[in-house]
Design a protein that fits this description.
Strand order of the largest sheet: 3-4-5-6-8-7
Structural class: alpha+beta
Strand content: 15-25%
Order of helices and strands: EEEEHHHEEEE
Number of helices: 3
Number of strands: 8
Number of domains: 1
Largest sheet: 6 strands, antiparallel
Distance between the termini: 29 Å
Helix content: 10-25%
Length: 168
């Protein structure tokens, strides 16, 4: 999918339920200081459960951003959508992978590291060992109940999609 004037548009129809697009920082955490940075872009591929249950969150935030809402207005709109149960529950096995060197996560990290993002219902992070000493899993600031009832867990991996090692 590509981002157009009115939201994401399908340019190639897949057959396996995966959806790939380049996300923008307005889908990041609301406390992210680079929320509106136009340089930030995150090539991401959603597996079928994430396409059905996480992508609607990103699409709704994108709709509000493209309609000209402020960060505070987007937050309030997302909170209202959650309260009205307009978003699906996160599905078991929801996963997004970000393995492309082409991304620019933020100005300080650049393309950061290749990583996998798992989505679980809010409050389930500890059952995964997230944030525990020595754990490779940490809770991302993107979601985690702010206001969406989802926790995003990140696991950094050692190689990029082209097979080269992550050296940074």
């Amino acid at each position: 999918m590509v981002l157009g004037k009115h939201g994401y548009e399908t340019v190639v129809e897949g057959t396996n339920g995966f959806v790939c697009l380049v996300g923008r920082t307005w889908t990041a955490g609301f406390k992210n200081p680079e929320f509106w940075n136009p340089k930030n872009r995150g090539p991401a591929c959603y597996n079928p459960p994430a396409a059905r249950s996480v992508m609607p969150i990103d699409f709704l935030r994108t709709k509000f951003a493209l309609s000209g809402q402020s960060k505070n207005e987007i937050y309030k709109s997302m909170k209202a959508a959650v309260e009205k149960k307009e978003l699906p529950d996160v599905e078991p096995g929801a996963l997004i992978y970000m393995l492309s060197k082409q991304g620019h996560i933020n100005d300080s990290a650049g393309h950061w590291h290749p990583h996998l993002m798992f989505y679980v219902p809010l409050g389930d992070a500890k059952t995964w060992g997230a944030g525990e000493p020595g754990s490779p899993i940490y809770v991302a600031p993107r979601f985690n109940g702010a206001p969406e009832p989802v926790t995003e867990l990140i696991i950094v991996v050692s190689e990029w999609s082209d097979g080269t090692p992550d050296n940074h």
